[in-house]
Design brief:
heterodimer; B: mainly alpha; Four Helix Bundle (Hemerythrin (Met), subunit A); 6 helices; 0% strand
Chain lengths: 95, 182
């Protein structure tokens, strides 16, 4: 009689696609942003946290939805420009 | 020496990337101007921002990222020769775009009912300009998604989906700047 281990049984299950993982990550980061705004923390800290989460979401869209994960140089370039933009926005917020 | 240039590494059409970068620069400049003008009256900007409906805007973020997911899946399915699934995903993405516009329209109607217009405060001038310009892109994106669901060549779908992801990307940065950084 052939014995199948639980490992081989479950290892045949399909993992979510990278696009599905990206979508779930975007939803999770959006929920995290919403929770952050409800927490009793200093507004300036809150602003920084919100912008970091927005940057993380932007990078996921660039890498997975716009497929720049296949072009690391462009992904790095876009990430650097978006980070500089977020730092500028945060700087103006802090003034 | 490599026989492919950096430009060749970009997925899809080069002109679509020129459009994406141009749009990001325009919206980015608008958001920087918004934050710059805010410095002249931070208390007034915070008070004006309190009139916005953050929950509706946060929900719209989930609507747009889900719509972007369907557009990305549509390209994947079309490349796998699953034309029916790709078309349905594109129509679903377009319908979610319509949901976004309905929520945005409700938000504008609520502001109008409160007597809030462009002239109420500089905050609302930027609010209407930036979110209105973005909503115009959503409207255009809905049309493009429906068009490529009809003319469903993989290259067409790729270009349409890229436009839609750009609209999504702009909203991801616009939402915290306009609605949350009070």
């Amino acid at each position: 009689m052939r014995v199948t281990s639980s490992f081989s049984k479950y290892s045949h299950r399909r993992l979510p696609s990278p696009i599905t993982c990206a979508w779930l990550a975007l939803l999770a980061l959006s929920v995290a942003s919403a929770f952050l705004t409800m927490m009793p923390i200093a507004p300036k800290l809150l602003g920084g946290g919100i912008l970091i989460l927005a940057l993380a979401k932007s990078r996921i869209i660039l890498a997975k939805y716009l497929e720049l994960a296949h072009s690391p140089s462009w992904l790095r370039g876009f990430t650097m420009v978006l980070t500089a933009f977020a730092v500028l926005i945060f700087g103006l917020y802090l003034v | 020496m490599s026989d492919t240039s950096l430009i060749d590494e970009l997925p899809g059409e080069l002109l679509m990337w020129v459009l994406i970068i141009s749009e990001l620069l325009v919206f980015g400049a608008g958001m920087i101007a918004f934050m710059g003008v805010r410095l002249t009256d931070p208390a007034g900007f915070a008070e004006a921002q309190a009139h916005l409906h953050r929950t509706g805007a946060a929900f719209n973020t989930a609507v747009l990222v889900t719509s972007g997911y369907l557009a990305a899946q549509a390209l994947h399915w079309r490349q796998a020769a699953r034309r029916g699934a790709a078309r349905l995903a594109l129509i679903g993405a377009a319908l979610l775009g319509v949901v976004f516009l309905i929520i945005k329209g409700t938000e504008y109607a609520d502001k109008a009912a409160q007597g809030i217009s462009f002239e109420t405060h500089p905050f609302f001038l930027f609010y209407y300009l930036l979110t209105g310009f973005h909503a115009a892109h959503v409207l255009a994106g809905v049309g493009i998604l429906l068009l490529v669901s009809w003319r469903d060549d993989a290259r067409n779908i790729e270009a349409g989906a890229q436009f839609w992801h750009m609209v999504d990307l702009v909203w991801i940065m616009l939402f915290p700047v306009i609605y949350l950084l009070g």
